[in-house]
Design a protein that fits this description.
By secondary structure, this protein is mainly β. The protein has one domain (about 50-190): Beta Barrel (Porin), CATH 2.40.160.20. It has one helix spanning about 5-25, and strands at about 50-65, 70-85, 85-100, 105-120, 125-135, 145-155, 160-170, 180-190. An eight-stranded antiparallel barrel has the order 1-2-3-4-5-6-7-8. β5 and β6 (about 145-155) form a beta hairpin. The radius of gyration is 39 Å and the shape is rod-shaped. The mean pLDDT is about 85.
């Protein structure tokens, strides 16, 4: 072996002995553990409208077309809704009392059997409603008709909601008075269960 090769092998051997010595004397690198991200629940503005309700309403009623009159009205309402995701459908009934004094006598009550359907904005429901309307009067007689309206209902809590609705009721043959219209605007509070 040549001197040059011997020196080269000796240097390689000495380096291999020194590397563990240097490795042991080096300080370890400190790394901080990064905490895992925590997923926080997001407060949802959605609300489930499925269920029954009962409530009270107060408003204004006006009779036109052959019978003229207006008065404050109030009553009760009840129904059941089904939440289908973005849409809500329901059935219900209500009765409003408070004699509407007309040119020919008093309209004693206005009751309805209704269906409604609307868009679910979370805690607010905007809807359209229609169905059968029944006008009762000891002076004018009783008559069945139909109605259409729009409304909004907003949940204050899971069990209490406020409503507002306007509707037009049509009676094609109200006794001898012919075609008659009754317009109503009501606000109400519901207990939902």
């Amino acid at each position: 072996m040549t001197t040059h090769t011997t020196r080269l092998l000796g240097a390689a051997f000495m380096t291999s002995l020194a590397v563990p010595a240097f490795a042991g004397s080096a300080e370890p690198v400190q790394t901080e553990a990064v905490p895992a991200p925590v997923v926080m629940p997001v407060a949802s503005s959605s609300s489930d409208w499925t269920g029954g309700y009962v409530g009270l309403q107060l408003g204004y009623g006006e009779v036109t077309d052959g019978l003229e009159g207006n008065e404050t009205i109030g009553g009760v309402q009840a129904g059941y809704d089904w939440d289908l995701g973005d849409w809500v459908v329901g059935i219900g009934a209500d009765a409003n009392f408070g004699s509407i004094e007309t040119s020919a006598g008093d309209l004693d009550s206005l009751s309805r059997l209704k269906v409604r359907g609307g868009y679910d904005f979370g805690k607010t429901l905007v809807y359209a409603t229609t169905g059968a309307s029944y006008a009762a009067s000891s002076d004018l007689g009783d008559e069945w008709g139909y109605f259409g309206g729009i409304g909004v209902e907003t949940k204050l809590t899971d069990t209490v909601s406020l409503t507002g609705e306007i509707a037009t009721h049509r009676f094609d043959e109200y006794g001898s008075y012919g075609s008659t219209t009754a317009n109503t605007a009501t606000i109400g509070v519901n207990y939902r269960f």
